[in-house]
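Exam prep: given the inputs below (a chain plus adenosine-5'-diphosphate), describe the expected output before reading on.
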Amino acid sequence: MKQVNDYFGCLVFNDEVMKSRLSSDVYKSLKKTINDGCELDISVANSVAVAMKDWAIENGCTHYTHWFQPMTGITAEKHDSFISPDGDGKIIMEFKGKELVKGEPDASSFPSGGLRATCEARGYTAWDPTSYAFIKDKILCIPTAFCSYGGEALDKKTPLLRSMQAINKETLRILKLFGHTDVTSVKTTVGPEQEYFLVDKEYYDQRPDLIYTGRTLFGAMPPKGQELEDHYFGVIKPRVQAFMNDLNEELWKLGILAKTEHNEVAPAQHELAPIFATTNIAADNNQLTMEIMQKVAKKHNLVCLLHEKPFKGVNGSGKHNNWSISTNTGLNLLEPGATPLQNAQFLLFLVAVIKAVDEYQDLLRISVASAGNDFRLGANEAPPAIISMFVGSELQDVLDSIETGKPLNTKGSKFLKIGADVLPDLPKDSTDRNRTSPFAFTGNKFEFRALGSSESISCANIMLNTAVAEVLREFADQLEKSKDFNNDLHDLIKDTIIKHKRIIFNGNGYDESWVKEAESRGLLNLKSTPEALPHYLDKKNVKLFTSHGVYTEAEINARYEIAQEHYIKIVNIEALTALDMTNKYYLPAISKYSAKLAKVVNEKASLQIDAVYEKDMLKKLSDGLNKAYAIKNELETALAKKDDIKKASDESIYLKENVLTKMEALRDVIDSLEEITSEEAWPFPSYGKLLFGVR
Ligand code: ADP
Ligand code: MG
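Solution:
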């Protein structure tokens, strides 16, 4: 039998391959670029290109592509073959350093948010040597950044790398103060847990809403939903297990550390968690994972749904972004440690994250805002739309003790002096694992739980890295001037706790009372994407990004505009799909079924038989049909009116308030009619088939 060891990473141009195929000088210089971000010499690039090409050809490739992540949120690729004429009517297989390092795709059809006029449509892609090249479908894929000719980032990778650079710089300053002169680079790490649904392709193919929008716009609940909680961690069905086995194999070949798989709460819902990696690699890997999940599902005659809310009435899907900061010497900076100094350093990083989350709640909220995720956040199945943090009772005691100067609750402990005392043991992943918190400390990392399942993790990490970088910069500015480090450190930590403790909430985030409490604390409650997005352009946020070189003002504007446009387009497509299904299928089907009943009523009447059931149903269906028809007309009118609105921010609010609400009202009527209509008369497969159809 094939052993995982034999094929793990076999499609990746990884360190082992580099070591065996590059001369030691070239290898060393490439490693320097990878580890410390030094610029790559063209002669080195040439050697790497040749080695990469030879390796790719040996593995069956004929083409290469610069694989990138435009602002659409998915990945893009344009394939070029290695062939080159040799002058004698034959070809040679060629790949030069300059082709490896830079590509020039026509970028005119990617969203640029006004960054690029179409007359200068070309963009360029630049190799990210810190993320390994890999082979997908016999194509050599080179992870790249995507920029305009003016150098503006047109993608999600470039700002992510810049944000990692920003946090690297500020963290190194802090670490120096703690005597870590051996640390030369710091990287953030991420382990994204990915949720998804699997449905039978046969049923999927019959649902225009799933095909066009990724979610069901209609559908009555079957007799059973998720109330028995028998799916969560339940035995995995053979067909799903076969899919998971195949998926793992494909991911492992690509060097993706797929680790944990299990059934989730909703029927047909599952989760996959990889082992964490450096953030940009984790982001690349997560994009690949989502793509491969969908591909592998098709092979099993399944469809993998990544939408945040494919089904009303059962949980939607999210992504947990487990995040930490690590040094090149192997230290996890969110690990409490064992000595007073290590503890002090940990507490400083901890309060830095607390302050960052408090001051940039709006950005974190924006980073998870999408039309799909609006159905989850605040809907008591996912974290609330209010951003808050959970630290657990043990750590809360420590923070309280520092703040008040009162002894810790643990026995024998006195006043906790930072830099002099040792923290009590903090049990890893302790306590009740508060699942209702959007941002939880879990022992040696933070878990940002509000991300949507279909979105790239880049945006959330760009916000997080940059916000923490900013706080670390402020801390470093202050501490570098200090004459009495331990004392000033203590004061800084204490002061930060006092100023930002409002963001910490260890209670139940689903509780109604939290909404009120959060409001009294002055925390933001940005309930939907249209409400959250305008904060992108708040002065403090523009200053944050520009001062750390993560985004220029033009780049922020572009992202804001693209996010607004995206929301508007999504809701528009959904509304058109709902109308299409109603006009062409639901209304005619209900009418036809009513006619059938009416015929029976007449026939029975002629025989002097009382048609109680048929009459009752006919009445209910006719009332419902008229009601659905009226709401459908209102929806059409409401949708047409959006074209009169000039500003995108007004348009998105309008769609949320006037179009999504009507779609919901229409759905309510149609779903209630589904409940009383014969299954054979209904035009689309039921929720029962979609949710329980895979066996
Ligand atoms: P859960 O109990 O939430 O299902 P686990 O404790 O198994 O999750 O871990 C969740 C994720 O956190 C995994 O992807 C794991 O690799 C990741 N993780 C662990 N340590 C770190 C770290 N230092 N930085 C980032 N992610 C981490
Ligand atoms: Mg988790």
